[in-house]
Amino acid sequence: MVARVQVSMGEPHFAPEDLGALVEQAPPVLGLPLEAAGTEQSVTLVSMGNPHAVAFIETPVDSFELERIGPAIEHHPVFANRTNFEVVRVRDEGAIDMRVWERGAGETLACGSGACAAAVASRLHGFVGDRVDVHVPGGTLGIGWDGAGEVSLEGPATLVFTSTWEDPA
């Protein structure tokens, strides 16, 4: 039985138009200030085929008011088609903590593209190296990106369902 799986998540993109972001800033967009729910959030923009705004904080991610601030970032007018929002705390050069507010879904326990976006943003800022463990409420994902090319995602493979199909013919 397979215990872990690794997949390519494609190349990250940083141009604001790739994220549907209405900003006039040369890519990559690092530390874009946004007012949201009475707070100012500084976000880094990363597309993994879908838009992500990544905010770095120094307090534990569990204490961040994601239920209040997440929807305000998702629907912020700078994002023409809304965005996913990740809040990240860097543990060290090989590990980060993350919570995610997914566009159209709200807070989820994990998000593969969000973990990749958080790892890429962390590397762009020089916080982490080529490989980082992303700790989310649903578990830990290993992300690899050397600053160019495709991002790899590795995580546990868990059997959640088995079935037998009886062909009526």
* Total of DSSP H or I helical runs spanning 4+ residues: 2
Q: What is the mean predicted local confidence, pLDDT?
A: 97
- At the fourth level of CATH, the homologous superfamily is Diaminopimelate Epimerase, Chain A, domain 1
**Structural class designation:** mainly beta
Which ranges are low-confidence, i.e. pLDDT below 50, for 5 or more consecutive residues? none
Supply Rg: 17 Å
Strand content: 35-45%
Q: How would you sum up the global shape?
A: globular
Helix content: 10-25%
- Named CATH topology: Diaminopimelate Epimerase, Chain A, domain 1
Q: What is the string of helix and strand elements?
A: EEEEHEEEHEEE
Q: In CATH, what is the class?
A: Alpha Beta
Give the termini distance in whole angstroms.
31 Å
Largest beta-sheet details: 10 strands, mixed
Domain module tally:
1
The protein's oligomeric status is single chain
Q: How many β-strand runs?
A: 10
Second CATH tier, the architecture: Roll
General description of the model:
With 169 residues, the chain is mainly beta. It has one domain (4-156): Diaminopimelate Epimerase, Chain A, domain 1 (Roll), CATH 3.10.310. The protein has two helices and ten strands. It has helices at 66-74, 112-124, and strands at residues 4-8, 32-36, 39-47, 51-56, 84-92, 95-102, 106-108, 131-136, 139-144, 152-156. Strands 1, 2, 3, 4, 5, 6, 7, 8, 9 and 10 form a ten-stranded mixed β-sheet that branches. The two termini are 31 Å apart.
